[in-house]
Design goal:
442 residues, alpha/beta, Rossmann fold, pyruvate-formate lyase- activating enzyme, OB fold (Dihydrolipoamide Acetyltransferase, E2P), 3 domains, 6-stranded parallel beta sheet, 5-stranded mixed beta barrel, 22% strand, globular
């Protein structure tokens, strides 16, 4: 039996695509292996979002190309190859095929063609058709990680954020059919998944391409009805201006939908936001977050900011710090601006020195650490449900997350003793750190 090895780089959305490719290969009779050296087909699902991600993807491809044995195929797939396929082929001569992110579902066809063709190489397969949701070959668009799973509801993005290359890579928004999403959710439920995390480039835009208004809220209502026995449903990547009153009401009225809102704002000064081509109405942000907190008093708020964007003055950065202090988010992710050729921000260049970006990043994260610690300390002494994700035998602790923490990006709960992995258990919180909590089984 033929074997394959897949490594996925970048975000959870990429991981879903990688797992979907794996499903198709297994259906074709290929067996997955954890040893790349023994695999007949090695697939690197690349990330091309920012320069650092592109460099990592090329390094990984080069490592596999150098280690490639005779008769083994190396396929470069994903976001990097969608946009820079020719460059990848030139920089990594050992790559046998270039497969773009928009046609991951053609992986079996690509492998078959590699088996039939001789030289020259590589084989390029980079059509730009927006087919996600319409041509998924019957795959479940999910990736399971213990008791949690990501479920992709759409792909592509119609937003025009000046710093972002995603529309250039993924194309415009294409929403998956609702019934396909519900079918995937039922499959996850049947596998015992305790948490379903809905992901897309912009979940709040779900259904817009079909003329739907408030499509995410409608999807959530159908989802809780379809899988009432999945304890946690989490929404990621909400876009400012599209968190509607209806969506807030739906989240607040269904206990399954965890009170957690991830809304990447990117900045908090109107002038910076306008240069970013992002929503710049901060009054709306304040009003909406107040509505969210009134409807869900226990809500955990998460956002993301970029520091060092072209033209960001000291006053604009101070406005960001003041905003963070005023709103007091539970979780904040921060990134230094990465210059991306081809985006709308390209004419602005990258004028802010790296040391200034670094200093601003450190200042923002230091301010947020104080806030996160204070927020975490409020939970000491309380009993909270924790989804257990692992056990460290050497330390004698179980590791999990509360509803306040999304997988991979937020904090953890470190629990004395051993609890069942993949299950939700009550834990008494005994201590707080800036990012993590400690606890004991109740």
């Amino acid at each position: 039996m033929k074997t394959f090895f897949v490594v996925s780089l970048g975000c959870a959305k990429n991981t879903v695509d990688a797992d979907s490719m794996a499903q198709l290969l297994q259906r074709e009779g290929y067996r997955p292996t954890d040893d790349a050296a023994e695999a007949d087909v090695v697939i690197v699902n690349t990330c091309g979002f920012i320069q650092a991600a592109r460099e990592e993807s090329l390094e990984v491809l080069q490592e596999f190309a150098e280690a490639k044995r005779p008769g083994q195929f190396l396929i470069a797939a994903g976001c990097l190859t969608q946009r820079y396929g020719e460059d990848v082929a030139k920089q990594v001569p050992g790559v046998d095929a270039i497969l773009g992110t928009r046609r991951w579902m053609d992986i079996v066809d690509v492998v078959r063609r590699l088996g039939r063709q001789g030289h020259p190489k590589p084989l390029f397969h980079l059509p730009e058709a927006a087919t996600v949701g319409r041509d998924e070959r019957g795959t479940a668009r999910v990736t399971v990680q213990g008791g949690s799973a990501y479920l992709k509801i759409a792909d592509g993005c119609r937003r025009k954020c000046a710093f972002c290359a995603i529309p250039l890579i993924k194309g415009t928004l294409v929403s998956r059919p609702k019934e396909a999403i519900l079918e995937d959710a039922r499959l996850l439920r049947d596998h015992g998944v305790q948490e379903i995390v809905l992901i897309a480039q912009d979940t709040t835009d779900y259904g817009h391409d079909r003329g739907e208004r408030d499509g995410l809220a409608s999807l959530l209502e159908d989802l809780v009805a379809a899988v009432p026995d999945v304890p946690w449903i989490r929404v990621m990547y909400a876009f400012p201006g599209y968190v509607t009153d209806h969506l807030i009401d739906v989240m607040a009225s269904h206990p399954q939908i965890v009170p957690y809102l991830d809304m990447p704002l990117q900045h908090a000064h109107p002038a910076t936001l306008r240069r970013m081509q992002r929503p710049a109405n901060l009054d709306w942000v304040h009003r909406t977050l107040e509505k969210v907190r009134r409807a869900m008093p226990e809500v955990a708020l998460r956002t993301t900011f970029i520091v060092g964007y072209p033209g960001e003055t000291e006053a604009e950065f101070q406005a960001l710090l003041d905003f963070v202090e005023a709103v007091r988010f539970d979780r904040v992710g921060a990134f230094q601006f990465s210059f991306e050729p081809g985006t709308a921000s390209e004419p602005l260049g990258d004028p802010i020195p790296p040391e200034v970006k670094q200093a601003r990043w450190e200042a923002l994260m230091a301010r947020q650490q104080e806030i996160s610690l204070a927020r975490n300390q409020q939970f000491v002494g309380r009993v909270m449900d924790v989804l257990v994700e692992g056990y460290d035998a050497e330390a004698g602790i179980s590791i999990g997350r509360t509803y306040r923490d999304a997988p991979e990006i937020d904090g953890l709960v470190l629990i004395e003793g051993r609890l069942p992995v993949g299950k939700i258990a009550p834990v008494r919180i005994t201590g707080a750190m800036p990012y993590d909590l400690t606890g004991v089984p109740k």
